[in-house]
Amino acid sequence: MEASIKLTKFYLNFVVMRKLLFLIIFTPCFAIANEDSLGISSPINTVITTDSIFDDAPAEIIKDIEKEEISSLKIENIVAWRLQQLDKKTPMDLRYNDKVQVFIDSYLGRNKALIARMKGLAPYYFPLFEQQLDKYDLPLEFKYLAIVESALNPKARSRSGASGLWQFMYPTGKQYGLEVTSYMDERQDPLKATIAACDYFVKLYDTFGDWNLVLAAYNGGPGYIQKKIASVGTSDFWKLHPHLRKETRNYVPTFIAVNYAMNYADEYGVLTKEPKINVSETDTITLKRQVKLKVLSQLLCINSETINYLNPSYKKEVYPKGSVLVFPANSANDFKINEASNYAFIEAVDNKEILIDEERVIYRVHNGDYLGRIAKVHNVHVFEIKEWNNLKSSNLDIGDKLVIYVKKEGNKSPKKVTSNKNEYTVQKGDTLWDIARKHNGLSVWKIKALNNMENDNLKPGTTILLPTS
Question: Are residues 109 and 250 in the same domain?
């Protein structure tokens, strides 16, 4: 290690001396030939001056220099210097300023867990992004935009309805060939959505001719950016910056910050969080009947994260008959070998003969009960209760027993309550009638129904739930 450091220092000193000798001999000549040649300004002079030392150095030498010699080189702002190294490698504008610093502090501070996850997911998505970006002759740094848009989640969906890794709205997705059906959403297909995004980037660059404006238009819409350019009278993003709405104003600084965070996360002690994804050799299965995600996960012993990663374009946690699904090759092979027994298992789950993440509950109908209220309390649908109990109508009689299949929450049974509730601790001598009388609008049957009570007996010290309305 010491020998390596000595060699690095020797190389550094050699390069510095060569540069200084060159400047001493030739600078006066340049100054005479062109008076303005030494007047080139830079927003970060110390960074520019220091950086010139490394022009001829191999990448591994630069890394050693940064770690071992950074203090001796007197770099005043290491973040700015590092961004400048990234900026040299791309036509995009990765400049440093205080607006960018705010988001760098966020990503490598309170949000560093996100960067840890992104480092784990990057090997699964970045090669695909880079291949398409290279094909379209686009800056490879666009791969980091998918982190800004979706945190590398192909199933991400915004409040406004944008979907997928690149967060296409429905009309824009259709415009670029991404189909959406009741079961499938090609905006969630990593390859197809990336191709569409590249098409869109190319079109935006043809319109604006500036990568910062391409980013801003991707977020705010090309029409919005064109209007701002016309009204403000400049096409410089940083001059437009204060005139843009907050989300679009912060979009470019966020993109630059993500570039920095992903490249220098190690220097901030951000560890990689590996996802639970198995993407070894894969094969496909064509389903002969509709199957739910949870059933396939249980049947093939594959976690849902892997299934969703390999089959992201399916919108719901159910795959219709005829779906072509991708699985790890060994799991797909096992499914095909045991196909008959697998479909028998699937049918048994559908018929509730086998329960995976549910439990069977017997509910006794109380005075005033109706299917809608019972379904809401148990977080199921009315049609499901009717189907499970072979009900031809919605009529119920007091004392009827209903079979209900409720979801498990981890290892616990779900609480059969509504979201609007108060807790009440039973006191010695309390009766249901007394409790109901103390709370306006309550009746005994409501208390019993909410707490699934079979009788009126109360035990002092126990807690019961009371509806607030």
Answer: yes
Q: Examine the domain organization and report whether 204 and 320 are in the same domain.
A: no
Co-location of 303 and 439 in the same domain: no
pLDDT for residue 71: 56
Residue 382's domain spans which residues? 358-407
Write down the residue that tokens 């191709």 correspond to.
Answer: 195
pLDDT at residue 466, as a whole number: 75
**In total, how many domains does the chain have?**
5
Calpha distance 449→420 (Å, rounded): 14
pTM over 0.70: no
Give yes or no: residues 116 and 193 share one domain.
yes
Q: Does residue 177 fall inside a structural domain?
A: yes
Mean pLDDT of the chain: 82
Which residue matches tokens 């686009």? 138
Whether residues 112 and 256 fall in one domain: yes
For 294-304, the pLDDT digits (tens) are 999 988 888 88
Question: Taking the mean position of all CA atoms in its chain, how far away is CA 171?
Answer: 22
Q: Can you state the percent helix, strand and coil of the chain, rounding each to 5?
A: 55, 10, 35
Instruction: Round to whole Å and give the CA distance between 132 and 76.
Output: 38
* Average pLDDT over every residue of 216-243: 96
Higher pLDDT, 434 or 198: 198
How many CA atoms are closer than 13 Å to the CA of 362, on its beta-carbon side?
A: 4
* pLDDT value, residue 469: 47
Domain shared by 124 and 152, yes or no: yes
Rounded to 5°, the CA angle 236-240-243 comes to 175
